Amino acid sequence: MRLGPASAVLGQRDFVRLWGAQAVSALGARITRTALPVLAVLSIDASGLKLGLLVAFALGPSVLVALAIGGVVDRSRKRPLLIASDLVRGAAVLSLPLAAWVGVLTMAQLYVVAAVVGVGTAVFQIADNAYLPSLLDKELLVAGNSTIEATEAVAEIAGPSLAGVLIQALTAPVAVILDGLGYVASALLLGSIRRREEPAAVEASPSVWRDVALGFGASWRHPLVRPILLGLGACTFVTGTFAALYMKFVLSVLGLDVGTVGIVIAMGGVGSLLGALVSPLAASRLGLGPAMVLFLFFAEAAGLLVPAASGAPWAVLALLFAHQLIGDGMHIAFFVQAVSLRQRVLPLEVLGRSNAAFQAVNGALMPLGALAAGVLADVVGVRTALWIGMGAGLGAPLLLLPLWRVADAPG
What is the pTM of this model? Predict the structure, then answer.
């Protein structure tokens, strides 16, 4: 009997090991993602600008690394890079509880840890997206990406709510110990993958700049990839507003406690899980292009529910829950199709450098959006800054309109 795509990917042991590695690190990553801004708001009373700087440090250095690492990824075996990224991130995260125990934890250390983890994550994501096609056949890539994103969604459900409980019970620095241990476990699982990986046949590059040009050129020239690069870039700039101001808004403006915020964010995991599961079905029914445009439109429109949150507590929570469910679900549904399309239409020998180009664009635009939002919030207030930033997100799906007539990806 012929297995369906989902059953087929779960029957491949090396993919399951990769899947498990991502699952254990994803849960811990949600804890730290919640803990860092909570530490900044509650322990240091960070301003909007400082929160914007925290996001900028988390993402800004990854731009330079992404630009430099794409060619290295294409010319190298990906698995050692994935393992090294896990170990470096684990060491950085575990430095937080150590500093807390000796009483020297500062905002400066939060910036440094955010930067190191951001760089490690950039390397991991570039290598990971280029590694998956060597483990799965092309017809299984959508199923593989859907499985991975569904697992990320489960981590999104469990991680923030668990983080809220742990932060209240143990303090935020202690809570991120689980994150550090998750990275170590991920590295061990990646080390157990048995399939021998042969690097793609890639020409030697005389300079990093040639690698950068090849990565951007491959992404820009392909008629199906260019709209994704533009749409994701616009979306990422707007996401910087959300990343910089969300914790400040829900904790200081709305007055929610950390535990409640964790539960709200966990609802985004429910939406992400649903989005990962329905993405292949919706794309097959609507057509690839229309589905991607609509996914991103509803994702960005849902962002307006955040600054709209006001009034009775039940109304506030209803709007925040709706934002997490719809926004995260539609973003993941879009992301599954966007990544799978790139993996199918771009040659393996340039995929790492194309991933680096995407990472560099996202890494540059999100901190710029975060810094702009932080400055704007200090001038006009957090809620008004969110209205402006989230409203601007409605322009992102317009950049995907060249894909509207695309029924399916070639290959």
Answer: 0.66
